[in-house]
Specification:
By secondary structure, this protein is an alpha/beta fold. The chain contains ten helices and nine strands. It has helices at about 5-10, 20-25, 25-35, 35-50, 65-70, 85-100, 135-145, 165-170, 180-190, 195-205, and strands at about 55-60, 75-80, 105, 120-125, 145-155, 210-215, 220-230, 235, 250. Strands 1, 2, 3, 4, 5, 6, 7, 8 and 9 form a nine-stranded mixed beta sheet that branches. Helix 5 (about 65-70) links the parallel strand 1 (about 55-60) and strand 2 (about 75-80). Helix 8 packs antiparallel against helix 9. It is globular.
């Protein structure tokens, strides 16, 4: 597909990436998540989250289920929700073929999810929240289905993710040359609502969530943030290098 999906998605108005688009692009996004870059990103995100064996997890915007499947060995159970029926169909097919019994996938909207109050210990969003037209409504719904002591973890592009910055980065980091068009992700970021630690907190704080820890990745073009209820005594930036795949400089501490 050579990145066509993200270029089509890079519309001028936030929220214009509708479920029909993602249904048509299911192969592209599935392949990207299964690339070396996708697997490194997922592995590092899970390490940052520090999931616990008893947790019940919800992956919002789960797509074809790649993050949910990666999380499954570390937690009690994982559910994925996505508004694109073909994405959910692909995730269910993969779940059946793998014999995994701790994953479930449903069609639903992040702003009105088919789950009960306080159902999940952890809610994840990976390259999803920046696309949402009404982030406050989604944050309120996420807070509703989160347990009182639950965690929200996000992996999202920042305003530094421009086409020019991404192109320079890709030229410098040869290990990323086989990635299915990260420049397309940069185009989508510019066209929608890239996030910072401050903007994430601004959206979630009215619903009782505070920043616990954060870090920047991809030369500052992406941010990971972990939110908890209450008021953490020492919000912190963390530093983590990608492990096991020899990826230099993948993650860096927040400036």
């Amino acid at each position: 597909m050579s990145g066509i999906a993200y270029r089509v998605c890079a519309a001028p108005t936030a929220g214009t990436c509708v479920m029909g688009f993602f249904d048509d692009a299911v192969d592209y996004f599935d392949d990207m998540r299964e690339s070396v870059w996708g697997r490194v990103t997922t592995s590092e995100f899970i390490r940052f989250i520090d999931p616990q064996p008893s947790w019940h997890v919800l992956d919002v915007g789960s797509g074809a289920g790649n993050l949910a499947f990666a999380l499954a060995p570390y937690v009690g159970a994982v559910k994925g929700v996505d508004q694109a029926p073909r994405m959910i169909e692909r995730a269910r097919e993969k779940c059946t073929s793998s014999g995994l019994m701790t994953c479930d996938f449903v069609v639903g909207d992040a702003k009105e999810m088919p789950f009960g109050d306080g159902e999940f210990d952890l809610i994840t969003l990976s390259a999803v929240f920046y696309l949402l037209a009404n982030q406050a409504q989604a944050a309120e719904e996420i807070s509703r289905v989160l347990k009182p002591d639950g965690v929200v973890a996000l992996h999202e592009p920042t305003p530094k993710m421009t086409l020019q910055h991404m192109q320079r980065f890709l030229r410098r980091e040869g290990y990323l040359r086989d990635v299915p068009d990260l420049t397309g992700w940069a185009r989508a970021a510019v066209a929608h609502s890239p996030l910072t630690e401050e903007s994430i907190l601004e959206v979630f704080e009215p619903f009782g969530l505070r920043l616990h820890s954060s870090r920047r990745l991809l030369d500052g073009m992406a941010v990971e943030a972990r939110l908890v209820r209450g008021n953490p005594a020492h919000p912190r930036a963390t530093n983590g290098m990608a492990v096991g795949l020899g990826v230099p400089g993948f993650a860096q501490a927040q400036p």
